[in-house]
């Protein structure tokens, strides 16, 4: 408790806000992308923008695992549960992601599919162990943070000789997504998305370390500051970015040094390397096909791979035409630019994935920020 | 021919190893025996004793209140309580939140075939104790049994009637701009206690459910400030849902201050771990009150003098806002909205 509150202290926040106000150069605009949904959530939930100078603009990035999962993959999962009769285990948010034809895993569950909400990969493994007659599939999603736990359950399943446990792997990689954004025409050439720097992921960086960002900082001349998920961490990181921009530097700095090292967590990386390998390409909602941006299960552990076990065929499905999730995930638009926001599309009735997870830009704006639209209008 | 009529020997119900079977809901002798040996023995009172299908009682003059509430909590026994006392407290509180004095309760049990009678006895005795402590008798009831697999152990519905004191007019649509918002104590205890106990969340905490009957606290509040405008117990959906309900019904907005919200450190830490917001988590022994600004300190004193209101606090005020937003000044010093929860985050919490 003490630990948590130290990072939310109002006094400290005012001190930092003062420093930020003095640090920004008059007449200059600062556009920073927070890559992670965790940061998006922290900024909205604690009202961080109220403490930032007006000239600092935070752009939401694609780092929300539920948001970037493409419709086709959810369709695959629904088919497994409804047509193949497996017990499908997944996280609560994933259950509400809209799939083709206004379905979702939640609706499949109501229609009789055995879909279970779990809090961890280990929960799914336990369900498999307790129900040996039932085939249990864990729908694995997420960035580098959730990948090691999935590796562990696969190794555990092997050790325990489980024959009814499978993983439908949708793990994706942060660095690939960042390069995709930096390579996109809007950022690179036209400059419609001005980006002056990145707030780098917290937990992801605990695993992969800060070294992978050195390439972006160098190649694209953008500063990166890795930050923890507490609101004061975000403010401190913004201050560090502002200083880098002012001084014309583009380095990788680490605000989250209490948890992140340059090389990351060697044991976690070894676990992942043991079980997974790179996919040649993977579709992201919003970003489209991104080369070498996701993982699949190595053939050595192929008997736990749901894609092999059930011959899953992936079919790409376009998002709802009016939904701007794609542009929002690339930082090119904001929720306010979507005509469906708050009318047709609400957290109760999400049209796009960004309205589902609390880390999604649309859901965060709807739940925490939308009163500002009215303030602005007034 | 002489002497007393010989009573048939009836083997007592085996409350140690027995289980509910279909005959316990059949309307036959087995059901009558269960009512006698369990429900009547536990709830015993003048209204129940004649074993009519209804209870007859005198009605005081004035406005009556009727409230009903079903309980499907899982697990049935949790730290700080069980479905039995919860079923009494839930309805007593619903009646009390009209500013009323609860008078009588009814109880309906839906039992699943195979449910251990020992557990049922424990639940019924907990209900009886809660009803005695609250001084609100259970005066009529009903029992049904469903086949195995068609229920989940036991579901309990309770209904309560009460009477509103003269001059008291409490309703969720009476909040006015400038009114103060008070809570009676720490937020989120019940929801976190249940969550910590659920089998698939092997999460340890010392938090216990706050389940309690609040009519005594309400009586003290109404006596101190008969003009109190809104009262509600923030159960499912937590404080966030209650304030949004008041905002919608009254056509006002609210602004609360995070630093003034009473939240136990352990609940805070558990919410952090579980990704929950204490504002959205259920309570079963807390209330939210709205009153005019000039009444606020008097109301706060009255609440703090009652054992169930010791941690009461003034947490914010109502504003003029056509959009009826509930806003919060964060501990950090920013602002954000406090919205309803969109998805069922914690199913079967009460
Ligand atoms: S508001 Fe809904 S439809 Fe619009 S971009 Fe967001 S998720 Fe898509």
Report on this model:
The complex is a heterodimer of chains A (378) and B (350). Chain A has 378 residues and is an alpha/beta fold. Chain A contains 19 helices and 13 strands. In chain A, the strands form four sheets. Chain A has a five-stranded parallel β-sheet with strand order 2-1-7-8-9. In chain A, α2 runs parallel beside α14 and α9 packs across α15. Chain A is globular, with a radius of gyration of 21 Å. The relative contact order of chain A is 0.16. In chain B, the strands form three sheets. A seven-stranded mixed β-sheet of chain B has the order 8-10-7-11-9-12-13. Chain B has two domains: 143 residues, 60s Ribosomal Protein L30, Chain: A, CATH 3.30.1330.10; 158 residues, PurM-like C-terminal domain (Phosphoribosyl-aminoimidazole Synthetase, Chain A, domain 2). Chain B is built from eight helices and 13 strands. Helix content of chain B is 28%, strand content 21%. Chain B is α+β, with helices and mostly antiparallel strands and 350 residues long. Chain B starts with 28 loop residues before the first helix and ends in a 13-residue tail after the last strand. The model of chain B has no long low-confidence stretch (mean pLDDT 92). In chain B, β2 and β3 form a beta hairpin. Bound molecules: iron/sulfur cluster. Iron/sulfur cluster binds next to α17 of chain A.
Radius of gyration of chain B: 22 Å
**Rg of chain A, alpha carbons:** 21 Å
Poorly predicted ranges of chain A (pLDDT <50, ≥5 residues)? none
> Which ligands occur here?
iron/sulfur cluster
Tell me the greatest interface: A-B, 36 and 26 residues
- Secondary-structure-based class of chain B equals alpha+beta
N-to-C SSE string of chain B, H for helix and E for strand: HEEEHEHEEEHHEHEHEHEEE
CATH superfamily of the largest domain in chain A: HypD, alpha/beta domain 2
Task: Give the CATH architecture of the largest domain in chain B.
Answer: Alpha-Beta Complex
Q: Span between N and C termini of chain A?
A: 39 Å
What is the SS-derived class of chain A?
Answer: alpha/beta
Whole-number total of structural domains of chain B: 2
Number of beta-strand segments of chain B? 13
CATH class of the largest domain in chain B: Alpha Beta
Helix content of chain A: 40-55%
State the major sheet of chain B. 7 strands, mixed
Overall morphology of chain B: globular
Proportion of strand residues of chain A? 15-25%
What is the CATH topology descriptor of the largest domain in chain A? Rossmann fold
What is the CATH third-level topology name of the largest domain in chain B? Phosphoribosyl-aminoimidazole Synthetase, Chain A, domain 2
